[in-house]
Amino acid sequence: MSTVVAESAPSPVSKKKIVSWAFWDWGTQPFDTVITTFVFSVYLTASHFGSENFTSQALATATAIGGVFIALLAPVLGQNADRTGHTVKNLRWLTWALAAISMLLFFVKPENSPVLNLFGTDFPVYLLLGLTLLATGSVISAIAGVNNNALLNTISTQQNIGRISGFGWGMGYLGGILVLLAIYFLFIQPEKGLFGVTSENGMDIRVSMILCGLWTLIFTIPMFLNLKDTPKIPPAEKVGVVESYKMLGQSIARIWRASPHTIYFLLASALFRDGLAGVFAFGAVIAAGTFGFTAGEVIIFGAAANIIAGVSTMLFGLLDDKIGPKTVIMISLSILVALGIAIFLFHDGGPTVFWICGMAMSSLVGPAQSASRSFLARLIPVGRSGEVFGLYATTGRVVSFLAPAMFGLAIGIGHTVTGEANTQYWGILGVVVILLAGLLVMIPVKGKQDQIA
């Protein structure tokens, strides 16, 4: 089996470039923290659009559909960035598009009419608009993440890649804290917020979406000022979509022949990353729908969760370089499964249960995500970061319907078993099943000794 040296940057690495790279996570965090987790998703699943079960299942469906598009597009676009050397350029346009999507959410009004009949079900038009924008934003965010991940190997070495990966994730979480608190104190908590904004007609939430878009535009500036592309010379030939997928198939075949454990890792990480995404995607929804958190309480919880997540991810990043990313992943997933079961079993315990278990879960999601990225980055050969991280995104999105589908299915099973009107808390069991599956598939995966050829 041939072994190659993973792609790494010349030493020493510029600290300015590392910090600038990490500010992309900081700048784009509003979409993950505010929009998909603690604020807008809660807004979409509130009673003004329908029952908790209906809106939660609609959100799960939209998330799954977005995942399908990511699976189809990510590897081809990542491959294109490798061929052309336009990783930063592509990332810039995707980031600006994400900012625009965020601001367009302002137009989602809290009204359940007019309605549009889809597949025999009446959907409020504004709910449909919100879900469409949310799914589109998730596609853009994920593909942008492919390009951002591909840059990791240009600013790190084998000795510090875990720390730098953890630093980037941690910066994202810490940025999430500030934007959550800004939204809370400027618009949501005051009876009359900045510019006279109130909660009437959902204006506090809707104006917050504009702030999210501006935040993304402003704080990603350092990335685009200090990191530059190195175009391929001679320029790469243009490749059609069909040919791109043929090349992707050839790439997968090469990886399988040279390093089957890389494929095993991609499969395992696809499962557990989908579960990790489910923890954040549906955690705030459960907090509001099952544990009775108000919108303000969800935001305070989110800020606290991001503090815990940011600090723990940076600390685990140091541990990653010492004990290895696989160990970090296994520890994190094992405890997350136990905590998810605890939330289900003790959901009658009220908000205190969710605060304790939710904070503990928040401390482990980031480390698992960061360690997953550093595990793969250690294996990637020179010139193939975009393609392999595109494949990484694709394998994740090929099964990305699982956590949302299991969340929705578990809610339905809970209703059938108990007869209760609100069985939203059963959804956590669906997410736990996916985390456990990823943990089990990860057990036999080997690390650096089986690199990509």
Description:
The protein is built from 16 helices and two strands. The protein is an all-alpha fold and 453 residues long. The protein has a single domain (15-442), classed as Growth Hormone, Chain: A. A two-stranded antiparallel sheet has the order 1-2. Helix 3 crosses helix 9 and helix 12 packs antiparallel against helix 13 (351-377). It is globular, with a radius of gyration of 21 Å.
Structural class, by secondary structure, is mainly alpha
Helix content: over 70%
Overall geometry comes to globular
CATH superfamily: MFS general substrate transporter like domains
What radius of gyration results from the CA coordinates?
A: 21 Å
Give the CATH topology. Answer: Growth Hormone, Chain: A
Topology, number of strands: 2
Oligomer: single chain
Mean pLDDT: 81
CATH arch. level architecture: Up-down Bundle
CATH class: Mainly Alpha
Whole-number total of structural domains:
1
**Major β-sheet annotation:** 2 strands, antiparallel
Strand order of the largest sheet: 1-2
- What fraction strand? under 5%
* Tally of individual helices: 16
Distance linking N and C termini: 8 Å
Tags for this model:
disordered N terminus, Growth Hormone, Chain: A, two-stranded antiparallel ribbon, mainly alpha, 2% strand, 453 residues, disordered C terminus
